[in-house]
Design brief:
By secondary structure, the chain is of the alpha/beta class. The protein is built from ten helices and 14 strands. The protein folds into two domains: 162 residues, Response regulator (Rossmann fold, 3-Layer(aba) Sandwich); 129 residues, Response regulator (Rossmann fold, 3-Layer(aba) Sandwich). The longest helix has 19 residues.
């Protein structure tokens, strides 16, 4: 899933206000943690999607930068997009008590429930970043007591992509609009929730036809393959939505055709495509800043400070709800490169 401005993503900027609906929580709520001395160097374990994923690398850059500046050291535990591996990694970390703080970017938010509960019970400060941990993908509220969340719910992401997609329709056709939504991974809980939210919002927002049976993945190669198959089956498609990495491979195949593209992920490449008019827009999660925010909240909580239990990324870390267009991205710089 691998995420998600000027600040997904992502130079650190000014202090960030937390959402008005955020609730403060005690540094020990839900677990047996004892506040660490202010001068103690703390350790952070970052359980990211995959080291090879540019989005996760953006998160990692934010985690590292904040940790290095605030008397902490951080380690990236690479599960390479594998849910069971990530579960085992966190369970091992709980057993060894190697980390004071863990930041969880879950590959499978359901599978990670028990190990996260174990971490909280062991007195480890847990921050859930980007992907909800639990069975609900439409809420930023922590689903496990004692955890802190810094996320943009997948369903909110899907609705935002649909908003950009329906707006893009108006730039390429005055009539019926056929929209293709490339899924990330097939049967991936986060992608399943996001895809359904996007499809529903596209249909209710005016798209005449929505195609969602192509898997675009998170690489240019997988996006290119999906685009080839899409154009064979639907040569009259008007708008294509997918991960920014996938669209980097898909875009050249749309050359000479009146197709508008909407990416998911605010990389340097995505910004370039939007700014030069090749793409209509991009859902720009400020992932480096989100990583830094996760580290900030985790370290503060571990040191006994009261922190908000829920921070909604696109409401608090951007001024444009992550809906990046040529106008809203003007003057901004992407936080990472694919």
């Amino acid at each position: 899933m691998k995420r998600v401005a000027r600040l997904i993503a992502v130079g650190l900027t000014a202090a960030v206000a937390v959402s008005a609906c955020s609730k403060p929580s005690s540094s020990t709520a839900g677990g047996a943690a004892t506040a660490a001395p202010a001068d103690k160097k703390l350790s952070i374990g970052f359980f990211g999607f995959a080291k090879a994923n540019s989005f996760a690398q953006a998160t990692w850059a934010g985690v590292q930068q904040y940790a290095n500046a605030h008397n902490a050291e951080a380690t990236f535990l690479d599960s390479n997009f594998d849910g069971p591996t990530q579960v085992n990694q966190l369970q091992d970390a709980v057993t060894s008590k190697r980390y004071d703080v863990v930041i969880v970017q879950a590959n499978d938010g359901t599978a990670m429930v028990n190990p996260v509960k174990q971490a909280v019970a062991a007195g480890i400060t847990v921050v859930i970043e980007f992907t909800p941990v639990g069975g609900k993908y439409d809420s930023a509220t922590p689903q496990i007591p004692g955890t802190v969340t810094v996320i943009d719910p997948p369903t909110v992401n899907g609705v935002g992509l649909a908003k950009l997609g329906n707006d893009a329709c108006k730039t390429v056709t005055s009539g019926a609009c056929k929209v293709a939504y490339f899924q990330g991974f097939a049967n991936y809980p986060l992608d399943t929730a996001r895809t359904q939210a996007a499809v529903d919002a596209l249909k209710s927002g005016g798209a005449s036809t929505v195609i969602s049976n192509f898997v675009g993945g998170y690489t240019p190669d997988s996006g290119r393959t999906a685009m080839q198959n899409l154009l064979q089956a639907h040569p009259d498609v008007n708008v294509v939505i997918g991960s920014s990495q996938a669209l980097e491979g898909a875009t050249p195949l749309g050359k000479g055709k009146k197709i508008a593209f909407v990416g998911n992920g605010g990389s340097t490449q995505a910004f370039g495509f939007v700014n030069d008019g090749t793409w209509y827009g991009v859902y720009d999660v400020p992932e480096k800043s989100e990583g830094a925010k996760a580290a900030e909240l985790g370290l503060n909580k571990a040191r006994g400070q009261s922190v908000p239990e829920s921070t909604v990324t696109c409401e608090t870390l951007t001024t444009f709800n992550c809906l990046g267009t040529k106008d809203t991205l003007k003057g901004l710089t992407a936080d990472y490169s694919d």
